[in-house]
Amino acid sequence: MNETEAQKHSGLAELLEALQDGYTALEKRDWERARERFLFVTDEDQDCAEAWFGLALAKAQCASVDEFSRARQRPGEERQRMLPAGSPEEERISEAVERFRVPGYFSEREIREMFGRSVPEYPSVTGSRRRRLAEERAFWETDPLISRAAASAGGDLAVTLRSVRERSEKALERSLAASERRDRERAEKALTDYHARMDAMERKVRDRHNAAMERREADYATACAILERGGSPEELQRAAEAFEALGKFRDSRQRAQRCKEEAERIANRKLRRFRLQKLRMIALGVLAVVAVGAVVSLFLSRLVLPQIRYASAESMRVSGDYNGAAKAYAALGSYRDSAKKALDSAHEAIYQEAEALLAAGDAEGAAEKFRSLGDYGDSAARAEQIGQSLLQERYEQAEALLREGDYDRAAVGFRRLGEYADSALRAQEAQYRAAELLLQAGDYDGAILRFEMLADYGDSAKRIEEARELRDAAEEEGNP
Predict the structure, then answer these.
(1) Alpha-carbon separation of residue 433 from 21, 128, 220, 457 (angstroms)
(2) pTM of this prediction?
(3) Domain limits at 419?
(4) Is residue 210 part of a domain?
(5) Rounded Cα–Cα distance for residues 312 and 327 (Å)
(6) Which DSSP helix (H) or strand (E) runs through 122?
(7) Residues 6+ apart with CB under 8 A from 213
(8) pLDDT tens for residues 293-305?
(9) Cβ 414 vs Cβ 430: under 8 Å
(10) Domain end: 205, 222, 252, which one?
(11) Number of folded domains in the chain?
(12) DSSP 443
């Protein structure tokens, strides 16, 4: 053996030793040592398939072919996604809206909220597994280490590489097929559950519809009873409001108008009766004075006595005895301006009575007295002023109840004020806070009902969803 052949033999032995050291390092899981030895071999012999494959094993941190094969078969990170199993049944929901809504009692918005906008969905990892299979196929085609190993491999190593690839791809294909089967089963179940939920929700909507119809019938019957028995103007006005709230239901609009007309008729009749009574009293006083005057006039001068009586009436009027002044003026008949002053004094007497009632704290009685005077002086303005003061006082009382946390009574107080100031909004605020208390106390159904009565006030719709979620969560905790 010459020197050249000896050097070649020595170099080959060194490469074989380095290759063996690399695989020994793999067995000991010394990845850095294995990588160093395999790189030494590939630097000297770039066609050494075993060294390139060893580098692939070190990179994958696999100590053997079997471990590498198992690693290639693992599915990797699987991200579960929710996939639609079908489309929302919008047509069915629209049909339910047409069938079950009750204007003023059960709206389209409430029905749609009950059904929700969910779609039938099911969990799936098929996408992740499909991507993992594509990545595995790309790995065998594009990985630089495996590609170099496969290009140079022959014999047992070539068979091993093909076997590992086939096993990994087939394992991932089986995993993908299993996932696709589960997807079909889950999609079918999701559709079944969705239809069952829609059926259950339609039954709930039907129940709400029936309850709304009953409430509407009850409100109509109550308002009709008030109209038929002919209550006070205030009761008739409330009945008119109840009919107006019913909208186009039966003959509600016509009955609302009848209530208003009847309330106005009764109020006018009471006012006429009151004025007639006062005029009768004045007339009786006038007749009495005239009768006495007729007897006395036989003895006194027709000129002196009227002047004395007129001065006396004036004195009574100036001193504030308006009732006495009215009678004295009436007794003078057509003397000078006695008739006018008699009526003015009678009006002033009533005006002073109203002032006394107001000073005594009977604001409602005072307002009624001022209204009975019609256009006399500032009576109409005083009646309006007192009425506004009463409204403000009741408004402040409702506000106090709201601050004290008595939300139900506060809401009633504000509603009774009608359109005064922002009473309608404050009534909604009180109702909203009452619903909040129910929600905090765990009465989710009560809270949902209160929020639903608020329609579009504030974030009531959002709070309904929150209450429903809390109720569902509580039901799930109670029924594991």
Answers:
(1) 79, 48, 29, 12
(2) 0.46
(3) 400-480
(4) no
(5) 11
(6) strand 121-124
(7) 102, 105
(8) 554 354 445 667 7
(9) yes
(10) 205
(11) 2
(12) -
